[in-house]
Amino acid sequence: MKPSRLKSGDEIRVIAPSRSLAIVKGEQRRLAEERLVGLGFKVTYGKTALVHDDFFSNSIEDRVEDLHDAFRNPSVKAILAGVGGYNANQLLQYIDYDLIKKNPKVLMGYSDITAIGLAIYQKTGLTTYSGPDFSTFGMKTGLDYTMDYFKKAVLMDDGFDLEQSETWSDDSWHLEQEDRSFHPNSGYMVIQEGEAAGTILGGNLCTINLLQGTEYMPSLRDRILFIEDDEESHPFSFDRDLQSLLQLPDADGIKGVIIGRFQKDSGMTPYALQQIIATKRELNGIPVIANANFGHVHPFATIPMGEIVKMTVRNGNAKVTILS
């Protein structure tokens, strides 16, 4: 089930299902809203999006009600998470999935929001989007690629190739808005060659693993996995987190793997990643590529969970096409 494509004049509701929007500074919030309004959207906010407790989050009840209100309101056509965090999975058992199924619309966020996006996809069949949070739109520089793929994913009807950005940056952009370093992008890192097609599933790896053994975990059957992790992950933790996912009963249905670029502070190197994948016999014979524009390193693409993707990896080159 796909939500309707967005168009000029549509209302986007910003909610805070993980950390409070209060941690996003005023100028960043102003610029983010300005960018979305510049695309023709009307921006509104959940009633408690700026409320916070000692953990800079909010009560389960308030966060769930803001989510429900956004889906219930017929004027709202898309829902953006304000920012990520650590506790979005607290909401899963309290969400009214029937309400969402009856009112399908765009839901987008990344990192910790992976838990909510995948749970909704599993329980309703609704395509959800791993893409920019509201706060991301407040980035002063280096946003063009992210904006372009946001529009391709939720405004346009056609499929699109997931091409690599010309440059990338791992700077703390929210702290150093005016002083950022951008590096040339050498393209996908090919780890294993092959061709595959399947339904997209993925997001932040350690967050995906929070869903294991629950009713909110989607099947891995006939999937192309998009996985990424942030600077809190390192080669040892990524290795065991990936292994845990591959030990699920239906992991033999994985058709291919696309790994997002790692943040520098993770300590991941091309050699370490190649060695980790080499130990995963479950992935033998399927294409695996890395350094995708997906995850916590900017810029990044918007990826529709539940859509079909084709990947062709031959002669050291990779092509990834997301179908409409």
Which short descriptors sum up this protein?
single chain; 324 residues; alpha/beta; Rossmann fold; Glucose Oxidase, domain 1; 2 domains; eight-stranded mixed β-sheet; six-stranded mixed β-sheet; 16 strands; globular
Distance between the termini: 12 Å
Main β-sheet description: 8 strands, mixed
How many DSSP helices? 8
Order the strands across the largest sheet as they lie in space.
6-16-15-10-11-12-13-9
Q: Classify the helix fraction into a percent range.
A: 10-25%
Radius of gyration: 18 Å
Q: What general outline do the C-alpha atoms trace?
A: globular
- The count of DSSP E runs of length 2 or more, i.e. the number of strands, is 16
Structure class: alpha/beta
Q: Which CATH class of the largest domain is shown?
A: Alpha Beta
Give the ordered list of helices and strands: EHEHEHEHEHEEEEEHEHEHEEEE
